[in-house]
Amino acid sequence: MQIKKNDKEYDVVIVGSGAGGGMSARILAENGLNVAIIEAGPYFDPQNKEQKTQLRWPWESPRRGASTTRPFGDYNAAFGGWELPNEPYSTVGDTRFEWFRSRMLGGRTNHWGRISLRFGPDDFHKKDFDGLGANWPITYEEIKPYYDRVDKMIGVTGTNEGLPNDPDGFFLPPPKPRLSELMYTKAARKNGVPVYPSRMSMLTKKLNDDRGVCFYCAQCSRSCAVYADFSAGSCLIFPAVKAGKGQVDILVNCMAREVITDDTGTATAISYVSKDDRREYEAKGKVIVLAASACETARLLMNSRMKGQTEGLGNSSGTLGRYLHDSTGAGAAAFIPSLMDRKRYNEDGMGGLHVYSPWWGDNKKLDFPRGYHIEMGGTMGMPMYGFGGGHKAIQKILNYKVGGYGNPLLKEMKSVYGAGFYISGRGESVALYDNYCEIDPNSVDEWGIPTLRFHYKWTDHERLQAKHMQETFRSILTDMGGEILTPEYTYEQDYGMLAPGAIIHEVGTARMGDDPKESVTNKYGRLHDVPNVYINDAATFSSQADKNPTWTIMALAMRNSEHIVSELKKMNI
């Protein structure tokens, strides 16, 4: 394939436009640098009438909002999913791994749950507590100033509670709990589980002139047309372009193929394939920033070479692709008879939970090493395709005749509307060398780029954590007056734990560390082997923590980007 070369050289070329890539672009551009963003999907703006799905009714869709090409439904903002046409990945043996990709400007930040939690002081050195995994080469105190700035730049709801490992921040007013959440709060506290206002990146009051305020449509997964929720495009990239301090070129529908290096081992460009004309191009840069997501970044590096390295760029340690881990996820659901036949009112609120439960346990007294936080939901949300699924189980609970159709069934459905409730756990798994991704030697994608192959297994660390989740959830749901709908899972069923990758929190494939023999980057995300290549996504995480990773991705990307500016000024790169 002929490579189309361009003499233009950017200060920085960024691969990926999600949380890490978006933050990198904003910080670098605000410092006057000329930046190119390479994005595998199309340009996306939730204000664009042709792309907007917010406030559309289910009956406007020929599938009544059902999932087809978008795994979370027709109106979800994700252009992608766990399976993409002509972009395969594979697994080895009995590995279960599901890899979610979102091909669009802003990436996964357009449709995520927006639960925005800082990692706590303990999360950066968990090995000191249980001897497992690796400590980070940085501390919470080093990252705290950047968390603070992310809070103020993006906006996050919550309250300062003085919790030792769930740090205080700069919070916007949280919304009031819904009725079912009040019931959860009472039952959870009865079971010794704390409950606090949720920490969500939606604006409950005006932050600046570029963004609107949440009007409680509960459709954040569709990406907000008034920019009241956090998405990397609307909150990071668009402001960077608008400010005009540094040039920002956005190259959409471009699949990054590899990092190009010269004979000295310096990175000079990103090779990419344009989906529009199926030709290969190069984007030259003094600095290369990879922020394509943990697995995509690892894939890009493993498909790149430099003189003296044949196992992937920056892989002298042999750890590239290793220590892959995702959040654990398990849940339980119940029918709450006392919530039947309620008065109908707008209970939508923000798109997601209004309260949450951070980890409360002492793992030294438990049979698993790492904790989890609790998410929950159950409201009178907009009925869509699949509404009423599982109604036969509810009929049995209520001693109704099982089955039915027409008006009698419709009457039953209206009666139980809003009486369902679910609880989910999102926990920390332990990073292991033997959980990893690698290049599949027998497969390429539509663009001729070699694809990934996954090796991954849960251990008893995660299974016993999921068992604890199930026991806790069932106790809380019972104390809410609920009738449990979820079966009792066994050890052989991983206690209902979802497959790795299903929670879409994968991290750790190019972990940071002080020792180049055991890590891929230093504490600034800079490759040990290639001094002008940085990783600004979750690939560098030494461990996941029991929190969602997005806030930490952005804090690190902000810090790393300012380090790039400093190093360029010093002419160190």
Q: Please, could you describe this protein's structure?
A:
By secondary structure, this protein is of the alpha/beta class. The longest helix is centred in the last third of the chain and has 20 residues, at 460-479. Strands 1, 2, 3, 8, 9, 10, 11 and 19 form an eight-stranded mixed beta sheet that branches. A four-stranded antiparallel beta sheet has the order 14-15-12-18, covered by helices on one side. The protein is globular. The protein has helices at residues 19-30, 127-130, 140-154, 179-190, 232-243, 294-302, 391-397, 406-416, 460-479, 550-569, and strands at residues 3-4, 9-15, 35-38, 80-81, 90-91, 101-102, 196-197, 248-251, 254-261, 267-274, 280-290, 328-335, 355-356, 372-377, 420-427, 436-444, 450-455, 483-484, 533-535. The model has no long low-confidence stretch (mean pLDDT 95). β16 (436-444) and β17 form a beta hairpin. The two termini are 31 Å apart.
